[in-house]
Amino acid sequence: MLISALCDYYDELAKDGKLVPEGYSKQSVDYLIALSPDGKIDDIIDWRITEQTTAKNGKIKEIKRPRTIILPLRSEKPGIDFNMVEHRPLYIFGLNFDKKEIVFSPDDKTDKAKKSHALFRDESLRRIEGLNSPVVNAFRNFLQNWIPEQETENPLLKDIEKVYNSSYFAFCLSGRPDILLHEDGQIKEIWEQHFAEKAADGDYKTQCAVTGEIQPIARIHNKIKGLAGGQASGMVLVGFKTSAGWSYGNEQSYNSNISKSVMEKYTYALNYLIKDRKHKQLMDDITILFWAEGGEKNDDCVDFLNMFLFGSDSETADKEETDRMLGSLMTKAREGNISEETINAFENIDENVNFYIVGLKPNASRISLKFIYRRRLGAMLSAIAEHQADMQTGSEFRNIPLWRLKNELKSPKSSKENIDTSLMTLLFKAIIYGTPYPNYLLSAMITRIKTDRSINYVRAGTLKAFINRKARASGQKEEFKLALDKQNNNQAYLCGR
């Protein structure tokens, strides 16, 4: 279900023009290497974008961020490997940066810098053989004339030595920063030809487990990067690294029967969601991703989820207006009267589309899928509204996001106390599907109240919500209410009064 849903989301992104062309990927670049016609480095241009942000003290400060450009698809192979139009300093310059001595040095016990630069130089010269354009010719001369051992005191490199290791580079002509190597038509042509040949090489075809069609199967899957707590180099969602997982003579991910086209789609969509803060939240060590069918045109419901479940205001959300609509939705939910008209009060939200919520956790070089929930949007919004209504203890609405509830399960004297992830996962599921909260929530909250000798509206609301939802699930009509109920003739209730 997950891979199929991600492929559908990819198709929606394609319709919205949000995709990178096949064979290419987005990369961050900090500096431009300006090459003279004879291949010498005339300048290293700071190409970062300056942005203004507000500091905690209220002052405006400027920060620099790298630009994002489209480069030929990067290699996923571990170790030293060639990339067309290289952007990493170790490969380009063949030099290491020694932080202790603050000098550049070509010395390395593993000779990684030397081997990396040699591969970059030799393979690049082979690929651009026969090409002829001003920027390509300058690049060729640079490759032929740059000698790392003679550049350890290069003043241009010295100027950026503190950020050398963490920076990425692109090439341009000296005096013409608009003439970029990676945008040269001949460079693109030879890369696209190579990519097409590589994609068709040694294809193993069988029925794809997702599309059902006979297609070339992916032997290895692209890496997923940016997952909280995961490896910086990326991890795989589908992988068969050891022979213990192979069967019927199939090696590696040939066992998954996922076609190359499906693999490219789902990995791109997953990386896209992880990079987009709007579609991502963290719950301890679990990264939660969520999206609606239909792509970004249905993102209003993502704003709703962010605000009333995770407690992070959308950049575009009008809080007062959204609070008003949520109050109306909560009332309808408690009355059991959620209708299409009620849901449509939220602009651009289709109650009938499916909404997906996925929990991912890093596990060495692989990604562990902790949960995946799919529910019709209207039903999910109703369930969230009902959860918020159950948690209320006063006449004035107070939004209680998950992080606020979780904090009440911790000791106020401890900043490092961790809440059992399984409890939060079960609570999250109960909210999405409108089911009773996990039993452990009640005992954990009562223990916290007794230990701290303190109770507030969140803790009281949790007790009230737990008891009412459990009673509701068992068919009981009586529920705890917010105020004195003079019409209640229950003997226990009257005795309590």
Give the topology.
Blueprint: H1 2-15, E1 24-29, E2 31-35, E3 41-46, E4 49-54, E5 60-65, E6 67-72, H2 89-93, E7 96-98, E8 103-105, H3 112-127, H4 134-145, H5 155-159, E9 169-173, E10 176-180, H6 185-200, E11 205-207, E12 214-216, H7 260-275, E13 280-283, E14 286-292, H8 300-310, H9 319-334, H10 340-343, E15 354-363, E16 366-376, H11 377-391, H12 402-407, H13 421-433, H14 439-452, H15 457-473, H16 491-496
Parallel strand pairs: 2-9
Antiparallel strand pairs: 1-6, 2-3, 4-5, 7-8, 9-10, 11-12, 13-14, 14-15, 15-16
Helix pairs in contact: 1-7, 8-11, 9-11, 14-15
Summarize the structure.
The protein is α+β, with helices and mostly antiparallel strands and about 500 residues long. It is about 35% helix and about 20% strand. The chain has a 4-stranded mixed sheet with strand order 3-2-9-10.
Kindly describe this structure.
The chain has 497 residues and is of the alpha+beta class. It is built from 16 helices and 16 strands. The chain has helices at residues 2-15, 89-93, 112-127, 134-145, 155-159, 185-200, 260-275, 300-310, 319-334, 340-343, 377-391, 402-407, 421-433, 439-452, 457-473, 491-496, and strands at 24-29, 31-35, 41-46, 49-54, 60-65, 67-72, 96-98, 103-105, 169-173, 176-180, 205-207, 214-216, 280-283, 286-292, 354-363, 366-376. The strands form 6 sheets. Strands 3-2-9-10 form a 4-stranded mixed β-sheet. β2 (31-35) and β3 form a beta hairpin. The chain is elongated and about 95 Å long.
